[in-house]
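Q: Predict the bound structure with magnesium ion.
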Amino acid sequence: MKKAVFLDRDGTIIHDVGHISDSGQVTLFTDTVPALRELQQEYELFIVTNQSGIGAGLIGKCEVDQVNCELDNYLREAGVYIKAWYVCPHTRNENCQCSKPKPYFLKQAAAEYDIDLSRSFVIGDHPHDVTTADNAGAFGLYVLTGHGAKHLPELPYDKLVFHGIHEAADWILTHPEPVSDIRREINIAAEYIQSGKLVVFPTETVYGVGADAFNAGAIAEIFAVKERPSFNPLIVHIADLDDLKQLAKEIPEQAVRLADAIWPGPLTIVLPKADTVPDIVTAGKPTVAVRMPENVSALQLIRQAGVPIAAPSANKFGFTSPTTAAHVSEQLGAETPWIVDGGACRVGVESTVVSLTGDRPVILRPGGVLREAIEEIIGPVWDADEIEQSGEAPQSPGMLANHYAPTTPLYLIDDLNDYLADNKTGFLLFQVTEGFNVNDPYVEILSENADLKEAAVNLYAAMRRLDSLNLNRIIAQRLPDEGLGKAINDRLRKAAASDSTRDYAPSEADRL
Ligand code: TXA
Ligand code: MG
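A: Predicted complex:
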């Protein structure tokens, strides 16, 4: 038995310009021919199109046949062979058997051309194309061309969307057994998360690169892959409201109302963090950002992994956020972790970040959910600019500032030999260093084996411990300026520079 791809015509392989009566009105999408050439290596191609304009008397049946005939010739000359063209000429009122989403033509093709529908696909820009696939036991892919973007809200959330036909074709060619291929990608990703590895997964906003939110070592790896110059706090993704309890110390009523109304969806809520959330996830802040994504694969992955997944967008620092799996591998190259390829992201911009840690809710980052929608649920909110303009201090320390800095003055230096170890000076060292005792309470060794990843994991906790000793100063040793060392140095530099009244070097009296 053969496999087939059933293609919608208007909005899927050609631009949708309304009822087409003349081939002069036909324009192929630029990637139609290359996509179909690739697909036909493994699939028989069919066109299935509803042309209700015929039944409505707006165009003639012969005109439509003529347009299709010329398009077929054009494609043939371009090396693309369409096995058969199926046209439903009826309006919806005629209640025919052949209009999509009825599977009539797919079943006809199956019978005439010996097609196995269970290994076949439908590509279309209308939700009824995907439903047709369901009704025929095939797999439907939705494209955002044509009317795709307009009808997207009607498309069930478990359906895959693509920016255009070429993306859809590529997905088909890499997922010949779509249902089990998706399951397999998620199964492997869940195992990777459990074993402390990174995975890339789709959300409705952008693709994320994630790890077990409770595994600090795995989280450090995220920063390395992203080449982030500093440790921004990450968003922790959950699949069930119950998961919030293990992440947040307090869950204010407003959070419950927002979560009930908007989750799963592109809203991130910042709450006081539970002690069990590693510092590296929150960049040393006492708060944690949490969201429940709407993407079905993301939710499935989180549930299967059995842990919340901390994830930033899966791009290199400073580059555009990825909204397809291919974007991710183009940017991350050979370092790309295991990818769950869930097609294109439906929202395409990052989530709205709202903080509920102060007197009044604050939108820290505008995103997928509008301010108005939030205000409808919990009343007036501020945005970060308004807070700044009002001259009010941020409602919780470090809430708007991105970086944790100790209250004890911190100095970042290259050569430790000049500095005296006394009981008023703490040392933040990268590795075991001659002249410093590992067991000395004033000495913190970030990694005894000089491992940058381990150093990253320990950084914030070590800084906090030294900060709690009521010292006069903390001397931090600059790390090798490579890999994660860059991120750590940048973080240390910010911590050293955070108090402008502070000298940048200890006075002579502090020196040997
Ligand atoms: O849509 C999204 O939110 C995507 C997908 C993958 O979920 N994620 C994303 O992550 O955009 P990222 O790391 O690129 O951005 C996280 C944002 C930053 O603006 C960060 O400052 C803020 O969330 N954020 C995270 N934790 C915070 C905290 N504890 N307090 C304040 N802001 C926080
Ligand atoms: Mg269409």
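A: The chain has 17 helices and 20 strands.
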